[in-house]
Design goal:
With about 220 residues, the protein is α/β, with parallel strands linked by helices. The chain contains eleven helices and six strands. The chain folds into two domains: about 5-135, Response regulator (Rossmann fold); about 155-215, Arc Repressor Mutant, subunit A (Orthogonal Bundle), CATH 1.10.10.10. It has helices at about 15-30, 40-50, 65-75, 90-100, 115-125, 130-145, 145-155, 160-170, 175-180, 185-200, 205-215; strands at about 5-10, 30-40, 55-60, 80-85, 105-110, 130.
């Protein structure tokens, strides 16, 4: 019998030891349930079609069908599933291709239990999550102003975060933003904190400066 109170997770990685390591992390975290694992993209897609998990952790580089293509297929068939890319690499092209394919999170394989937990909870709720190394990489791409930077900007900030950024730039208070977006004030404040962390700024003035500099608000 499926326990629907838990977040059901499927994983895919062609390296058995790394796959087992992620499995052990998942089984140690309260509220998570592992529904299955795969060693390549084709098997992952079959597993997802059979079990329809809440979250998928997928290695980017796998045989038969790589993580990018598997993510694209899963996202097209099951857009409600939160997908987190796993990689030993932090190359710009891999990060952007995974995000464009539908991944809402990205972790390096040396991730901690805390980062894994935060990523799973975030994508399960429709938000994004990138480990600090990837977050920094995306922020640098945004600052570059290139086409890759535009993709990075879209990846780094969720639609809701962009709405909050715009209203902050228009000098709305947290309470006013909450009323405008039909959110709780505390939720808006959490968005503000997350946005400033992604931008690597310390206050609202820095947030506005960043938004103007990189075209998030005009």
């Amino acid at each position: 019998m499926i326990n629907y109170s838990k977040i059901r997770i499927a994983i895919a990685d062609d390296h058995e030891l790394l796959r087992q390591g992620v499995q052990q992390l998942i089984t140690r975290i309260e509220g998570f349930e592992l529904v299955g694992d795969a060693s390549n993209g084709e098997d992952l897609v079959r597993l997802v079609r059979l079990s329809v998990p809440d979250v998928v952790l997928v290695d980017v580089k796998m045989p038969k069908l790589n993580g990018i293509e598997a993510t694209r297929i899963i996202n097209s068939e099951f857009p409600q599933i939160g997908i987190v890319g796993l990689s030993s690499f932090d190359e710009d092209d891999l990060i952007l291709e995974m995000v464009k394919a539908g991944a809402r999170g990205y972790l390096l394989k040396n991730t901690t239990s805390r980062q894994l937990s935060e990523a799973v909870f975030a994508v399960h709720q429709g938000e994004t999550y990138y480990c600090p190394e990837i977050n920094y990489k995306l922020a640098r791409l945004v600052a570059g102003g290139s086409q890759a930077g535009e993709h990075a900007r879209q990846s780094l900030f969720t639609v809701r975060e962009l709405q909050v950024i715009e209203l902050i730039c228009e000098e709305f208070s947290s309470k006013q933003i909450a009323a405008q977006l039909q959110l709780r004030t505390r939720t808006v404040e959490r968005y503000r904190d997350t946005i400033m962390e992604k931008m690597e700024v310390r206050n609202s003035a820095g947030l506005v400066k960043y938004a103007l500099q990189f075209g998030l608000y005009k």
